[in-house]
Amino acid sequence: MSSSETLVTREAFGAVVAGRLLRWLEGLLGLVCAGLLAALLGVVITAVALRYGFGGGFAGSDELAIWLHVALIAFGAPLAINSALAMRLDVFTRLLPAWGQRTADILADAFVLVGGLVLVSGAAEIAAMIGGVSPMLDLPEWIRFALLGGGGALVLLAVFLQRIAAGRSLQLLASLAIAVVVYAGAGKLEIATSLPPSLALGLIALVGLVVSAPLPYAFLAAAYLAIPFGSTMPEPAMVGSVVSGLSKFLLLAIPFFLLAGGLLTASGVAGQLVRFAAALVGHKRAGLAQTTLLTSVLFSGASGSSVANAAFGASTFQPELVKRGYPPAQAGAIIASTSVLDNVIPPSIAFLILAAATNLSVGKLLVGGFVAGAVMAVSLAVAIHWTVRGGATAMPASRSEKWRAAVAAIPAFGLGFIVVAGIRLGIVTTTEAAALAALYTLGLGLFGRLRAASLYDAFRQAGTEASAIGLLIGTAAPFAFLLAVDDISGLVASLAGAFGNSAVAVMLLSNVILLVVGLVLDIGAAILLFGPLLLPLAVAAGIDPIHFGVIVVVNLMIGGLTPPVGMLVYVVSGVTRLPAASLFRAILPYLAALIVSLAILSAGAVVASALAAPR
Q1: Which of 301, 427, 437, 485 could be 260's S-S partner, Cβ–Cβ 3.0 to 4.6 Å?
Q2: What is the DSSP letter of 96?
Q3: Which residue intervals of 247-344 are DSSP H helices?
């Protein structure tokens, strides 16, 4: 056997071994994530039960839950590298020739490796420096930071195994060489420039996005590479900022809402919502498309995740819409555009992120979400009515059929009642309401004899998705810090002053900024970065902060349908195997309808501010 044949054989053997190790690692991490989410749910539910059943909770429950959440994000990070919520933007790399795509892959992996190194090194430094114990758990504080560092090490291991298993060892070596050189050199360089560190960070992160690096690692690597441009945030401070951004009890509601949505689909209760919606509007013009819209409205009261609804709608409605004569691209566009409602109609993960970033009332935001969701749903219904020319319609459902469908859907409606009523009446906190919603859907699944494998899959998927969202929230914190240090809010305020500080000018400027930001940033990152920047301007102009917060979410959700990022379009494209470009073209009339609804809501906020102004 020649030396070249021997080398090929060794590489093939290495790929097989790496593949087995990768599957073992992913299986173990999936089990850990599912277990951590179950423990997290148990802690919060036990605290609620003790408070209402015995008049008191157990000491340290909130702190324990936060630590478990940090651990969930750390152990789920390797699983989330390639998930839909990792925010890999491949619209540009797809246009490149084969050699260009390989180069982009090398650079994308280099961003991930630098981000992983920052987590490992920064966590080790801050863990060595920090002292003391947690107030309630009496555990050393360094453990929280070590968890995130361990997550970074697991990310590095996962990337190594993935590339070796795919037979891309040479590309991995190239990525590693770039990452090591950049990581070692950035701490020693000083670049004389007038460029603010926050702008340098944003531009470097944008490069990461263009080469299809996951957004959280693009943020981390860019934060580290901003040091030569004058950033005052060293590695330990970066990791400390990430952990601080994650350590909010409110954010624990995110994995619970994701779990509730997953269990709702797995238990078949989501199918009952579909049948109820079909009984109401299935016989009308474009009946199945209107059923898709109404199902999104109803499903919004359960999942709180537009990505979950887009995936559910693409798998449930796309085949039926095409079968009834809808062009495939139009069917996918309808599904993507109606899934926007899930992050507007309560419960909404987007509102939770906004509340965490701005300290706005979650309960009031949820009420505002109902109004905004209604306006958006009506706008989409009109657009669907005028754009759908074909598609068979069903016979009108009888009164008894409607009644049976409504009764069957009652369990799903109960979920929305638990969440919204519990929060608005002040009975439970947002996180506790989300935990009760997850427990409720778990009960529905057990009552429906959901298999153990399906339960495990729901917990694992929710844990992985929560890790992706949590890591994005945490890694956006250093960017937000530098934006504050560079007084970007002052620059925005000056820009608003140039147009006049009236409510009309501020609202128009804010909407333009957010629509542009939505083109290139995920909604979670955009809320975290621009919500705190723009909210003070709106308040100064006399705009109600809750109204403005709702408009921020509506505006940025529209970004889920616009190129080049268009997260919801890519989710539908991934499920249906339709080209994203064709979906982007087909979505234009529904995008126009949503922009009209945004204009209506913005005009309403301006009018309300004028009526509330002292005379």
Answers
A1: 437
A2: S
A3: 253-266, 269-281, 287-303, 306-316, 318-323, 328-338
pLDDT at residue 555, rounded to an integer:
93
Q: What angle do CA 54, 56, 62 make, to 5 degrees?
A: 130
Token code pair at residue 15: 């790929």
- To the nearest whole percent, how much of the chain has pLDDT over 90? 24
Q: How far is CA 558 from CA 270, 384, 554, 613, in A?
A: 24, 17, 6, 30
- Cα 315 off chain centre by: 20
The tens digit of pLDDT for each residue in 377-397 reads: 999 989 988 888 654 455 666
Where is 9: in which H helix or E strand?
helix 3-54
Which residue has tokens 């009515």? Answer: 385
Q: Which two tokens stand for residue 150?
A: 């361990």
Residues linked to residue 107 through DSSP beta bridges, in sequence order: none
Q: Which amino acid is at 285?
A: R
CA-to-CA separations, 15 to 59, 307, 424, in angstroms, rounded: 49, 33, 54
Of 153, 154, 159, 129, residue with least CA distance to 141: 129
- Phi, psi (rounded to 5 degrees) for 264: -60, -40
- Our measurement of the distance from residue 279's CA atom to the centroid of its chain's CA atoms, rounded to an integer in Å, reads 32
Cis check: omega of the bond before 347, within 30 degrees of 0? yes
Host H or E run for residue 235:
helix 235-246
pLDDT at position 615, please? 60
Give the residue-averaged pLDDT of 424-446: 81
* pTM listed for this prediction: 0.81
Distance CA 378, CA 597 (A): 9
Q: At what angle do helices 235-246 and 98-129 cross, to 10 degrees?
A: 90
Cα angle: 447, vertex 465, 423; to 5 degrees: 65
* Per-residue pLDDT at 475 exceeds 70: yes
- Distance (Å, whole) CA 130 – CA 133: 9
The model's pLDDT over 173-208, given as tens digits with 9 standing for 90+, comes to 999 999 999 998 887 778 877 778 888 888 898 899
User: Which band of pLDDT confidence, cut at 50, 70 and 90, is reported for residue 567?
Assistant: confident
> For residue 189, what are its two tokens?
């360089």
